[in-house]
Design a protein that fits this description.
Blueprint: E1 33-37, E2 43-48, E3 51-54, H1 55-60, H2 87-101, H3 112-117, E4 119-121, E5 125-128, E6 136-139, H4 143-153, E7 170-172, E8 178-180, E9 185-186, E10 189-192, E11 201-204, E12 208-209, E13 212-218, H5 230-233, E14 237-244, E15 247-248, H6 249-255, E16 269-271, E17 276-277, E18 285-286, E19 306-307, E20 310-316, E21 323-329, H7 337-345, E22 356-358, H8 373-376, E23 384-385, E24 391-392, E25 400-409, E26 412-424
Parallel strand pairs: 6-22, 8-16, 9-26
Antiparallel strand pairs: 1-2, 1-5, 2-3, 3-4, 6-7, 10-11, 12-15, 13-14, 13-22, 14-16, 14-17, 18-19, 20-21, 20-25, 23-24, 25-26
Bound molecules: calcium ion (CA).
Length: 427
């Protein structure tokens, strides 16, 4: 069914650019990323099927306008500048791109020769982070994940901390070490206790893990001292990316008291290159979990506030085949993005264009839907057996972790592609 607020989402649209069967990137997606072809400058791009389209080149050809009113520099480098004026101009741009890239007899192939000059196969384009992620916050919004961690590290009877059902718990992360998909991740060195009674040691982490997360990227928020309400929040959210919050569990377990995550987290996080807009995901909106107790008024929302996004994690050993070790869904999250953003700003904290807010590990309620090795292998007590017969309690050197995500409805599949990273030995 067509949502008239978002004509670019019309399921009947087809592109004149080839879209392989099962692609995450049909004409209804129109994501935004930052890429470089042949070592040229990085520019804003969109993608149809396996083809990138350089938005700066379309601007230079007079086919699209710059949403930042900056004379085209909005399309150079990271997307932050494009996000300064909020969703209106980006909606207009997405709609214009939909018109240029759709197969429409009325347009009779208009501008296609010009657009072809801006096209390149994805395999020939190097992708960078979509924004600078000037600030990065990581939430902890999956109830099952928080429960599992609480059971393993504290007490099954009091697995959730007393605050957990009352506010979206989070911490400020490190944005400088967020790397584009495909960047290898070196096993970090650090301080940890090999057993609870042992003295601390220094060495390569023995408990390297991933965390399956989805992050949202913001439009310009409000000034310092102002707050964004839950009702306003989605108008400040540009789109979503897949996010792997690499974690060293032994370093984390020893260092986190009393101030929280630090060196067990900030050695690397990996992000998928294409930002799928909240507008493109509108057809997949769904109701989140029932919240009990009812949150305080500033955290209350009306209507469906989450999205049905299927997520999976693949683990490929060195020279081996991929094993799908987790299937989860974004809709499992207890706290919605609107609640996270309202909570983040309720004290007057400002949010800027291009900030990244990650969901926290997304675990469902079945053991095959847990979003980390810590949970899948239950703190090392239930090792996973891979197709090649090897076992995993945590990640080994040479392992590659790939996360994928997509939504599907009415014959339209909208996805993120993937975020991947291979583990290199410590050095
Ligand atoms: Ca995390």
């Amino acid at each position: 069914m067509t949502d008239h607020r978002f004509p670019a989402n019309d399921p009947s649209l087809r592109s004149w650019i080839e879209v392989p069967a099962g692609s995450d990137f049909p004409i209804q997606n129109i994501p935004f990323g930052v890429g470089s072809r042949d070592g040229e400058a990085f520019t804003a791009m969109t993608r149809i099927g396996d083809t990138t389209i350089d938005l700066h080149a379309l601007y230079e050809a007079g086919l699209i306008e710059d949403p930042s009113d900056a004379g085209g520099t909005g399309f150079m480098g990271q997307l932050d500048q494009l996000l300064l004026n909020g969703p209106g101009p980006i909606r207009a741009l997405r709609q214009r791109l939909s018109e240029l890239l759709r197969d429409d007899k009325a347009l009779n192939g208009l501008h296609r020769d010009t657009i072809r000059k801006a096209m390149a196969p994805v395999a020939e384009v190097e992708m960078d982070n979509p924004t600078f992620f000037s600030d990065y916050t990581d939430f902890y919004s999956s109830r099952q994940h928080a429960y599992n961690v609480g059971v393993m590290f504290r007490d099954p009877a009091n697995a959730l901390m007393p605050n957990w059902l009352h506010l979206p718990v989070g911490y400020h992360g490190r944005s400088s070490s967020i790397v584009p998909s495909g960047t290898p991740v070196r096993r970090p060195m650090g301080q940890f206790k090999p057993s609870p009674d042992a003295a601390p040691e220094f060495g390569p982490t023995r408990q390297l893990d991933f965390e399956l997360e989805v992050g949202f990227i913001t439009y310009e928020g409000k000034d310092l001292g102002e707050r964004i309400t839950t009702a306003e929040a989605e108008e400040h959210i540009f789109g979503l990316v897949l996010f792997n919050d690499w974690s060293a569990r032994d370093i984390q377990a020893w260092e986190y008291v009393p101030l929280g995550p630090f060196l067990g987290k900030n050695f690397a996080s990996s992000v998928s290159p294409w930002v799928v807009t909240l507008d493109a995901l509108e057809p997949f909106r769904t109701q989140g979990p029932q919240q009990d107790p009812l949150p305080l008024p500033y955290l209350r929302t009306e209507g469906p506030r989450t999205f049905d996004l299927r997520l999976e994690v693949g683990l490929t050993p060195r020279n081996g085949q991929e094993n799908i070790i987790c299937r989860s869904n974004f809709k499992h999250l207890y706290w919605s993005m609107a609640q996270q953003l309202a909570h983040h700003t309720v004290n007057g904290c400002n949010v800027r264009a291009g900030d990244l807010m990650a969901s926290g590990t997304i675990s469902g309620d079945t053991p095959d839907s847990y979003g980390s090795m810590l949970e899948l292998a239950w703190k090392g007590t239930k090792p996973l057996t891979l197709a090649d017969g090897s076992e995993r309690k945590f990640l080994q050197d040479g392992d590659t972790v790939v996360m994928r995500g997509h939504a599907e409805k009415d014959g339209v599949r909208i996805g993120f592609g993937e975020v991947s990273g291979k583990i290199l030995p410590a050095s």
